[in-house]
Design a protein that fits this description.
Elements lengths: L5 E4 L14 H11 L3 E5 L4 H7 L13 E4 H4 L1 E6 L2 E7 L4 H17 L14 E3 L4 E4 L7 H7 L4 H13 L3 E5 L4 E6 L4 H12 L6 E5 L17 E4 L3 H12 L1
Parallel strand pairs: 1-2, 1-10, 2-3, 10-11
Antiparallel strand pairs: 3-4, 4-5, 6-7, 7-9, 8-9
Helix pairs in contact: 1-8, 4-6
Length: 249
């Protein structure tokens, strides 16, 4: 296939392992893509995660003016200009809203007997990211193997999602990573991010390709199906690299 005018990637599980930096091989492939087309990364993490996992791993020759970052599941957008990342928009939650969401998350974890908040965790279990509040059952910095083992069949996250959604009917509640639930303002998801970025840079959604490892019912990439973007499902970062090699060659 020809290279689309815009390629959007999920981050964890697609470009990199969970919370890990992209590999040197992935960085080199992204440099090749950035020389040919516009590239975006959209995921549930906050901006610092995008910078450490992706941007800081790219060689100096990377054309950052062709790179767009959409943290917090598309609830915010950053583009590179004059040597710095500039915020284009952010659908920010108020502190009062964030506090209410946190209370609901704590109640869900306790009532369902899935999270014991009195026990130590790998970093914060609930994080206010400005435009999003994220619940991470094991903590933000949990080891990958423990994340993978915590909810392999998704039953725990589905239960948390159902409980939190019922208590927060005026917000968007999404299953995030392997142990996480993300909450943003209503109707704010990856489809919203795709709409906003395409509008911003003047690229048709039909000329956009979305690549993710959770393009299935209930997956954190499912919202891409609400747009006119083409989609490509991958299994892991190695599968993503294989696909990119085919594009750039």
């Amino acid at each position: 296939m020809s290279i689309p005018k815009l390629i959007m990637f999920d981050l964890d599980g697609t470009l990199a392992e969970s919370k890990q930096p992209i590999t040197d091989a992935m960085a080199e492939l992204l440099v090749e893509l950035l020389a040919k087309t516009r590239v975006a990364v959209i995921s549930g993490g906050a901006l610092p995660q995008f910078l450490s996992q992706v941007v800081e791993q790219l060689p100096s020759e990377a054309n950052l003016s062709n790179l767009y970052l959409l943290p917090t599941s598309g609830a915010s957008l950053y583009e590179y200009s004059n040597g710095e990342w500039k915020k284009i928009y952010e659908e920010r939650l108020t502190e009062k809203e964030a506090q209410h969401i946190e209370e609901v998350m704590r109640d869900a974890g306790t009532v369902l007997s899935l999270i014991d908040f009195s026990q130590p965790a790998y970093g914060e279990r609930i994080e206010y990211r400005g435009a999003q509040v994220t619940l991470s059952a094991l903590g933000q910095q949990a080891p990958i193997d423990e994340k993978m083992a915590w909810d392999p069949d998704r039953t725990k996250r589905v239960a948390l999602h159902a409980h939190i959604s019922k208590s927060l009917p005026t917000f968007s509640v999404k299953i995030g990573g392997k142990t996480s639930i993300d909450v943003t303002k209503q109707n704010i998801d990856k489809a919203y991010g795709i709409h906003k970025l395409c509008e911003r840079i003047g690229v048709s959604e039909s000329d956009t390709l979305y690549i993710g490892d959770e393009l299935r019912s209930g997956g954190n990439d499912e919202a891409a199906y609400k747009t006119d973007a083409e989609t490509r499902s991958v299994i892991n970062p190695e599968d993503t690299m294989k696909f990119i090699r085919g594009l750039v060659s």
